[in-house]
Structures are given as structure tokens and as C-alpha cells.
Amino acid sequence: MFDRKSFFLLAVAFVVCNSGLAISAQRNVTPAIERDPILEADAMRNLDVAWQGFGPARKAYKQVLGRFEETYAAYPEFSKIDEFLYLAGMSSYYLSKNEGKQKVNLNLEREREKYDPQRLRENAVAYLSMMLERNPESKYRENAEKVLKELKPAGQ
After folding, report:
1. pLDDT tens-digit profile of 123-156?
2. The CATH number of 37-151 is which of 1.10.10.60, 3.40.50.2020, 3.40.50.2000, 1.25.40.10?
3. pLDDT single digits (tens) 28-48
4. 75 in helix, strand or coil?
5. Inter-axis angle of helices 61-74 and 81-96, to 10 degrees?
6. What is the domain partition of the chain in residue ranges?
7. Closest Cα to residue 131, out of 94, 99, 90, 100?
8. What is the structure's pLDDT at 106?
9. CA triplet 93, 86, 130: central angle to 5 degrees?
10. Helices (H), the chain
């Protein structure tokens, strides 16, 4: 059937073809995001503080939004930005209904601009949609979808 030389050439060709496939497959691998350990630690502290403010005892939704905005502006690549987007979306949603212990004073120009209920609802939709887009398997998915369904008009 095959002599030794033909068998050897066939084996070499097989190895070359298979290693070529492995090399080309490796080219399509998305490189891991390099995370800055100092920024990551700072963002994690902000997330922890935001969770404390979000909890049922504090309901400090303005504080949560402040921590989110600070973190997102400085470090949008934060490894847990999806979790932060959830907190920001839910805080915006609750503030749009004037819930929480930190009340919105629409008589103050600065607060009227930042905490306008319509703007807060739009922000809630944006944050929760981005969270679901980035992390469709999030443990907060069900709650986020429920709020989005309430906030988005039918057909959008």
C-alpha cells in the first residue's frame, strides 16, 4: 500500500495541517482585558459602599448613583460594572418614583436637572439594558427585565 517514504510524508502533512488549524484558531481568541489592580480595588470599594447604600436599611439611592457615576467615569472596564449598572438602574427607577430615604427636591435647580423623574426613568432603562446586554446570564436579570417591561412603552 504505502511505502515508508509515502507514509512519512503523509504523517508530516497531517501534522502540518492540524497544527495550521490550531494556529489559525488561536488567532481568533479575544485577548483578556488587562485590569488595573489599583483601579479595580477602588472600584470594588465604591461598589461595596453602593450596596450598603442600596440596602433596605439605607435606601440612599442618590449616594448609589454618585458612586456609580464616579466609578464609571474613572474605570468603565471594572470587572463588576454589570453589577454596578444594576444598582444604578434600580436606584434611578426608585428615585423616579421618589422612593428612598434621600428625597429629591425638584425646587432646587441642580436637583431638578439631575433627578427629573423622566430623565431618571430613561437612565434606568439605559443602565438596565446595558447590564443585560453585557451580562445576559446575570442573577439580577429577572428583576431588571420586570422593571424594563414597566418602564418601556409597548412596542419598543
Report:
1. 999 999 999 999 999 999 999 999 999 998 754 5
2. 1.25.40.10
3. 555 567 888 999 999 999 999
4. coil
5. 140
6. 1-30, 37-151
7. 90
8. 87
9. 100
10. 4-27, 37-54, 61-74, 81-96, 109-114, 117-134, 141-151
